[in-house]
Design brief:
Length: about 230
């Protein structure tokens, strides 16, 4: 599967998974925004640098994780005796995307268990670092908070990280997570400026189910392509 298609797909998966972003990160965005001085919150021109800084830090963490996972994929592919080792990783990535779609739609909560375990193992050690940076008073400080926020346990992020392993390359893994991170921006930037309206919209069952179904289609396509059961363009 060409890399450019991977990047576009990762962006669209994140965009569709935005309904999960709002539910997962909405409280964090709200708390960070409310922690800013009143004059900053009430003027969009003053608020937007903070929102961009938070999200730039978050996406930087995604890119770093994608680079690591791409390196893991490269090592795994190199050590695999079976020639199709990378294709196996791609199939697994497709299955994770299907699981993600079921999760977003509310039809299966299996990824919630992954988030719970990761929260107990990883987040409880990282979260205190972010707490020490609060309250935020400067965009640079907001960027550092975003770096911590990027490690929040999230089934959406984990699914795409598995996908980045299948790239089998450090740079490609990083680019895949960058594209994914950019796809999450519309939901989370909007969340910082119009939280109430956006939350009401994404809570509609039809919105969640439609987004989840489209993510499932992406996952099935990606898995079938890796298995050779779907013709390549």
């Amino acid at each position: 599967m060409p890399l450019d298609v991977n990047l576009i797909s990762a962006f669209l998966v994140a965009l569709l998974g935005g309904v999960h972003c709002v539910g997962m990160c909405g409280g964090i965005v709200g708390a960070l925004t409310l922690g800013l001085p009143d004059k900053t919150r009430q003027r969009f021109g003053l608020l937007i640098p903070y929102l961009l800084a938070y999200n730039s830090g978050r996406i930087a963490s995604y890119v770093a994780a994608g680079a690591v996972m791409g390196g893991v994929g490269a090592a795994a592919t190199g050590l695999t005796v079976v020639h199709g080792g990378q294709l196996v990783l791609q199939v697994i990535a497709g299955l994770f995307m299907i699981a993600l779609g079921l999760y977003v739609a509310g039809w299966w909560r299996g990824l919630a268990a992954v988030e719970h375990v990761a929260g107990r193992v990883v987040w409880k050690r990282i979260e205190p670092l972010g707490r020490q940076l609060l309250p935020v008073r400067r965009p640079g400080q907001a960027f550092l908070v975003g770096l911590v926020w990027g490690w929040l346990p999230c089934g959406l992020v984990y699914s795409v990280l598995v996908w980045s392993i299948s790239t089998g390359d450090v740079v490609r893994g990083a680019l895949l997570m960058l594209s994914f991170g950019l796809g999450t921006l519309p939901a989370l930037l909007t969340m910082g400026t119009a939280a109430g309206q956006l939350t009401r919209y994404v809570r509609r069952p039809g919105v969640r189910r439609s987004a989840g179904a489209l993510v499932i289609v992406f996952g099935a396509y990606y898995a079938l392509l890796a298995l050779g059961l779907w013709p390549r363009a």
